[in-house]
Design brief:
2 copies of one chain form a homodimer. Chain A has 6 helices and 6 strands; from the N terminus they run βαααβαββαββα. With 179 residues, chain A is α/β, with parallel strands linked by helices. The first copy, chain A, has a 6-stranded parallel β-sheet with strand order 3-2-1-4-5-6. The longest helix of chain A is centred in the first third of the chain and has 13 residues. Chain A is globular. Chains A, B: InterPro entries: 5'(3')-deoxyribonucleotidase, HAD-like_sf, HAD_sf. Chains A, B: Belongs to the 5'(3')-deoxyribonucleotidase family. Chains A, B: Pfam families: NT5C (PF06941).
C-alpha cells in the first residue's frame, strides 16, 4: 500500500473545460484545449481576458460545478481501497474556493474522508510516496515520486513519468478494473 | 534553516479561551484551563454542552476573533525570517472555519504567504523538519521532530520535547529577541 497524493484541478476536475467555455462566451473566442497547448492558459490570453478570468475564478461557486475527469470516479473508488489516498489541492491561490472544493469532493467522491483532504499552496509540504499532478512546478518541489498528469499546458514536459489519463493511472498502480 | 510546521489552535490562537468563555456563559459553568487539565475539553463536558459547543464551532465566525497566544506575534515575525515556516491546521474537522482561519492569519500574521498555509486533517501528510502542535495524536503521525506545545489537555503527556509557550519556542530555535 502506497500513499498517493492526487491533485484536483486538471486531474480529478476538468477545470480548464470550464475556463475555456467561459472565456469563449465572454470574449467571443474559439479557444480549444489544442489551441492552448504547451503553455499556461494565462499566457494565451489578453491582459483583459486574464484579469476577467482570474476574477471569475474568485467567485465562490466557480469550482462548484466542474466536470469530473473521465474514468476518475470508478478508478478512484478502487484506488482509495487499495492505497492511502490524499487529495492535495493548491486552494490557497483562490481562498474563496475552499467551500466549493470541499463540497465538490463530498459530492463526487463521498467516501473520501475529510482527513484525507489537504488545501495547500506549495506541494513540497506533502509527505507521500507519489504525487499525481499536472503542474511541473509542484512536482519539482515534491520529495516523493512525481507523476505528471497530461494536460494541454504540459505537453512538452518530459521530466516526469507521465499518466495520460485515469486509465493510465489505473495501469500504473495495477488497479483491477471491473470487466 | 529548518522547515517548521506550526499548528494554529492552542499554539498560535487561544481557541480554548473562547470555548471556555462560551461554555461558562451558555451553561452557567465556572470552567477554567486548570479545571480541564489532563484530558480533551470534550471529556469534561456533558453531552448537551459538548453538542452545543460543537455546533457553535461550526458557525462560520467562531474562529474569527480568537486571541493570539502571548508573544506569538513578535516571535513568529523573527522565526519566519530565519526559517521556512508553514502553518498546518486541522481545518477539515470544521470545514465552515476555512475562511475565518485564513482571514485570521492574514490579520494577525500578514507576512505569512498563502502558499505557506496548509489546511489538513491528518498531520502525517506534512513534510517538515519540525511540527509544533498541542495534539499528541498529530505529533505521533508526524515523520519529523515533534514538539509538544503545552496546553491543559496535554499536561500529562511526556512523549515529546515540550515547549511551554512562545518564549520557549524562541529559545528552542535560538531566536534572538529584541531587548
Amino acid at each position: 500500500m502506497s500513499r498517493i497524493a492526487i491533485d484536483m484541478d486538471e486531474v480529478l476536475a476538468d477545470t480548464q473545460a470550464k475556463q475555456l467555455a467561459w472565456l469563449n462566451q465572454q470574449f467571443d473566442l474559439q479557444l480549444t484545449p489544442k489551441k492552448v497547448e504547451g503553455h499556461l492558459l494565462w499566457e494565451a490570453l489578453s491582459d483583459e481576458a486574464a484579469k476577467a478570468l482570474d476574477n471569475e475564478m474568485r467567485q465562490p461557486d466557480f469550482f462548484a460545478d466542474l466536470a469530473v475527469m473521465p474514468h476518475a470516479k470508478s478508478i478512484m473508488e478502487i484506488l482509495y481501497q487499495e492505497h492511502e489516498i490524499f487529495i492535495a489541492t493548491a486552494a490557497m491561490e483562490y481562498p474563496t474556493s475552499f467551500t466549493a472544493k470541499f463540497d465538490w469532493l463530498a459530492m463526487h467522491f463521498p467516501y473520501i474522508h475529510p482527513s484525507r483532504i489537504v488545501f495547500c499552496g506549495d506541494k513540497s509540504i506533502i509527505h507521500a510516496d507519489y504525487l499525481i499532478d499536472d503542474s511541473p512546478r509542484f512536482l519539482s518541489g515534491f520529495k516523493g515520486q512525481g507523476l505528471l498528469y497530461r494536460a494541454p499546458r504540459n505537453v512538452n514536459v518530459t521530466d516526469y513519468p507521465v499518466v495520460e489519463n485515469w486509465l493510465d493511472v489505473a495501469k500504473y498502480f495495477s488497479v483491477s478494473l471491473p470487466a
